[in-house]
Automatic annotation (TrEMBL):
Signal sequence, renumbered to the chain: none
Keywords: Metal-binding, Zinc, Zinc-finger
GO molecular function: zinc ion binding
Boundaries of every FLYWCH-type domain copy: 21-78
UniProt keyword annotation of Zinc-finger present: yes
Name of this chain's protein: FLYWCH-type domain-containing protein
Highest classification ranks of the organism: Eukaryota, Metazoa, Spiralia, Gnathifera, Rotifera
Amino acid sequence: MISNVPSENSSFNAQQPEISFATSNKGNPLIICDNYLFRCNKTTISKKYWICTEKGCSVYIHTNVNKELISISGNHNHSANPDQLEAKILRGKMKERILTETTPITKIYDEEIVKAKLSKAAAVILPTVIEYRSNMSKARRKITPVIPSSVIFDIPESYQQTLSNERFLLVDLFMTRGKDRILVFSSDQQLELLFESETI
């Protein structure tokens, strides 16, 4: 997710560019400024210090704790690459959805591609859906609970509720002295649809 944040005073804001915030593939915060990318290098009680992600570039950005721009120092020793940045931001959006949703990876890929309206250069940089699905399937499996070998296991809270925080696990019942277990999953809307259906 990207958000635009103005500086903490109007006179400074008139001279300095707006900054946007994004998230890295590892979930760390990033700043985008003039098509350059910055990562958080140091945090104090009142300030955050951000450094250009390009190795060897010493440009810094200072923000306050409210993510408002305070100052920019230094000159970049490399050119900006807006197309590569555009592709990187899109990959971050895709990964965030893949790790928080159960939507098929190929569907997420297609939906985000349509919404992004990438430039031709950025589209060339972006991995194909087959390449991306292979990498992201591994990432999704790491956070997905393994298939249990016993009926005795805990069900994570995220599997007991819908994305709207409504109940989804309706029945959790042990049978025959713990040898069998009955689990019933459904949302209230699905139950209503079932009860109203003439044919089952």
